[in-house]
């Protein structure tokens, strides 16, 4: 699951890894926000060298994931989980770092609350759909559709479907029957 979080008015590309239950944040996006650098990639390149020279293992824990770039294409991007990102932020001299740490803590705290009480996820989804003006009817249809999809995939799992390509194949069959077109 990939999406964009907003920090103040800036976009930070993110990815939720369901397997590890971890958020990953685009390092370049964070550096651009904290430094106001016109070339955040160069800043990150220099910071990686500095951290490596200091004996830090931060760079070894950076992951590369495909995220949507400014040109709309999926591009490999350095991402870090919250722990590593906070360590990177600590290495950046910037008055913007403290509010960013607070923002990250809020995002992490909200996710932890949702893990403890999954109903909160539904409420947050409802609020997020209301912000761009979605109607209550649309929101209800969306939530009902997701519940139906979850029941279907649960049924498939109980029937022995466990591979991603098998789910994709079955989804394509349903889509073909519904629309007459393959996905």
Q: Features of this protein?
A:
globular; alpha+beta; 5 strands; about 180 residues
Give an overview of the whole structure:
The chain is an alpha+beta fold and 183 residues long. It folds into 2 domains: 2-116; 129-179. It has helices at residues 27-35, 40-53, 82-90, 97-116, 119-130, 136-158, 164-179, and strands at 2-7, 10-17, 22-26, 63-68, 74-81. The protein is globular and about 55 Å long. The model has no long low-confidence stretch (mean pLDDT 85).
Q: Got a strand count?
A: 5
From the alpha carbons, calculate the radius of gyration and give it in angstroms.
20 Å
Strand line-up in the sheet with most strands: 1-2-3-5-4
Structural class: alpha+beta
Rough shape? globular
Strand content: 15-25%
Topology, element by element:
Elements: E1 2-7, E2 10-17, E3 22-26, H1 27-35, H2 40-53, E4 63-68, E5 74-81, H3 82-90, H4 97-116, H5 119-130, H6 136-158, H7 164-179
Antiparallel strand pairs: 1-2, 2-3, 3-5, 4-5
What's a concise summary of this model?
Helix content is 56%, strand content 18%. By secondary structure, the chain is an alpha+beta fold. The chain has two domains: 2-116; 129-179.
């Amino acid at each position: 699951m990939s999406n964009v979080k907003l920090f103040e008015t800036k976009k930070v590309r993110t990815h939720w890894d369901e397997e590890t239950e971890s958020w990953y944040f685009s390092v370049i996006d964070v550096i651009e926000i904290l430094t106001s650098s016109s070339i955040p990639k160069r800043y990150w390149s220099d910071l990686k060298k500095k951290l490596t020279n200091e004996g830090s293992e931060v760079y070894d824990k950076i992951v590369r994931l495909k995220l949507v770039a400014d040109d709309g294409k999926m591009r490999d991007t350095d991402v870090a989980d919250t722990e590593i990102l906070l360590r990177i932020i600590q290495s950046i001299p910037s008055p913007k770092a403290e509010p960013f740490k607070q923002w990250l803590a809020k995002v992490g705290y909200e996710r932890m609350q949702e893990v403890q009480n999954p109903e909160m996820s539904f409420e947050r989804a409802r609020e997020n759909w209301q912000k761009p003006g979605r109607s209550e009817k649309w929101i209800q249809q969306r939530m009902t559709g997701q519940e139906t999809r979850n029941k279907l995939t649960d049924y498939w799992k109980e029937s022995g479907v466990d591979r991603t390509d098998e789910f994709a194949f079955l989804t394509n069959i349903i889509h073909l029957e519904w629309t007459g077109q393959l996905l």
